[in-house]
Write a structure and sequence with these properties.
Layout (H helix, E strand, L loop, with lengths): L5 H11 L3 H10 L4 H10 L15 E9 L2 E9 L2 H4 L2 H17 L4 H6 L9 H12 L3 E10 L1 E7 L4 E9 L1 H5 L3 H14 L13 H16 L9 H20 L14 H12 L3 E10 L11 H11 L1
Antiparallel strand pairs: 1-2, 2-3, 4-5, 5-6
Helix pairs in contact: 1-2, 2-3, 5-7, 9-12, 10-11
Length: 311
């Protein structure tokens, strides 16, 4: 019996979009032969997704669901924006979100093996069925689960999604203005320059050192500064690091989008006084649909030529 390696299972999953257990069983049956395993999956009717593996799925939707004090956000990719607007597709995304909230899976592989909410199928099987029904490659790319006091925001019908977690005193949470204040922070993250950290104190020292090195190197290429000693350049850069780095990378240092004379930190401090209790941003998660994925470029002249010459 062939020894099945974890990387082989992962490779087969990447090729087919199917669950880890289905891929492992197929590899065991195929004695480790990747092509034979794909054939086995096709013969079992599971590999509709395999036929679409080479297609690019960079459209889709980011969606969010909250039940009680548990909030989940997911990105599910499709090949076309048309399918992303399909009611059946969106219903599938909601069912996966319900599954995530109920089961709180640790990873994508675990999610794929869970029973999909409202069905008797695993999420992996439900995904394959949805691919067969719609006729496009669909990929569950990522998800996150946040527990506690949050505000959420979805921009552009699923283009961008944000979850912000807060710590707040009871008096602030009881104030009717609390929802608007926290929503404004979520809006800030979606609408402004995407931050990486909540506050300056959250930036690791190695990141600061790297940024300093980059800016010092840039200063050496500035004719006005090139002749200055290294220690002087470092002092100059350190004084400008707020403008050069923190005001972009740190949420609380950013200019508030609704009133740019304030930073987000100052807006939150001001709002806390008005709400009658302290409100603090603990963390945030930002999903931008298709971020980092290759987009399909359509050449309509070629498409029309292929259609004309096909017959």
């Amino acid at each position: 019996m062939a020894q099945i390696k974890a990387q082989d299972v992962a490779a087969l999953r990447a090729k087919t979009g199917l669950g880890m257990m289905d891929c492992k069983k197929a590899l065991v049956e195929a004695e480790g032969d990747m092509e034979q395993a794909i054939k086995i999956l096709r013969e079992k009717g599971l590999a509709t997704a395999a036929k679409k593996e080479s297609r690019i799925a960079a459209e889709g939707i980011v969606d969010i669901m909250t039940e009680g004090d548990v909030t989940a956000m997911i990105e599910v990719n499709t090949e076309t924006d048309f399918v992303a607007k399909n009611a059946s597709f969106r219903e599938f995304v909601k069912s996966v979100l319900s599954t995530i909230i109920a089961g709180k899976p640790c990873c994508l592989e675990s999610l794929m093996e869970m029973t999909c909410a409202g069905t008797e199928m695993t999420v992996s099987q439900a995904l394959v069925e949805k691919i067969a029904q719609i006729g496009e490659k669909i990929s569950i790319r990522r998800f996150t689960v946040v527990e506690g006091t949050v505000s959420t925001y979805i921009h552009g019908a699923g283009q961008t999604g944000v979850i912000v977690k807060f710590e707040a005193e009871d008096a602030a949470k009881a104030n009717e203005g609390f929802a608007e204040v926290t929503k404004n922070i979520a809006l800030q993250i979606a609408a402004g320059t995407p931050p990486t950290y909540v506050a300056k104190e959250d930036v690791p020292q190695n990141v600061i050192d790297e940024e300093m090195a980059i800016q010092v190197a840039a200063a050496k290429n500035d004719p006005k500064l090139a002749s200055k000693p290294e220690n002087v350049l470092k002092n100059i850069v350190a004084g400008k690091l707020g403008k050069l780095f923190y005001e972009k990378a740190c949420l609380l240092e950013q200019a508030y989008v609704k009133e740019d004379s304030l930073t987000v930190g100052k807006y939150l401090a001001q709002a806390s006084k008005e709400l009658g209790g302290n409100v603090k941003v603990v963390s945030f998660v930002l999903f931008e649909k298709g971020e980092g994925l290759q987009k399909r470029e359509e050449n309509f002249a070629d498409e029309i030529s292929k259609m004309v010459n096909k017959g």
